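Progress against Task 2.4 (sequence-to-structure conversion) is shown through the following example record, which the project officer requested during the mid-term review.
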Amino acid sequence: MNDEHWVWERIKRERIIAVARGDGAKNLVSLAKALGDVGVRVFELTMTTPGALNSTRELCDALPDLLIGVGSVINARMAERAIAAGAQFLVSPIFDLGVMRVARELDTPVIPGTFTPTEAQKAWEAGADAVKVFPASVLGPGYLSSILAPLPHLQLVPTGGIDLDNATMFLDAGAAALAIGGSLIDRQSLQTGEFDAVLERAAMLVKRIEPYRE
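Structure tokens generated for the chain above:
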């Protein structure tokens, strides 16, 4: 089991969750290690990646200093398998009560996906450590500040369309952390193992958000 409070507090300090969604397990450990070296130390592997659970085990064994989570978790069985594979936190594109129940029972932070203020509040009441706001690029930073005005207790993690140009805007709007996928980790880099461009983007991102880290 995980130290749920400690894991979420570290995610908030780090501010960035790097999301990998690929066609297979190739190069994932090398990529996660390289990202950690430039200051991106929270890594999410989606269940839509073939072999995701085996890769999660490999990542956790090889990189104990990083936080490794599993995303695209949409039901209780997926949640159980992800945690058994070593996932230190769970992320879902939806709000599913089965996922929430498993996460609570196994003391694992969970970030369910929501779109509306009502969904966000319901997820929070069900025990979410934070609420994923998706797709963030459609909603924009102003949407976060609008939600937080009447619901300041929510911890919001915008996802979908976060990049170098708007990352600080979302943090200024009150985001607790940012989940960043394709604009940081492209599928071609995962396939080839050529990470120079990914690491350049990651280093620039870390530099920009450094003032927001506790």
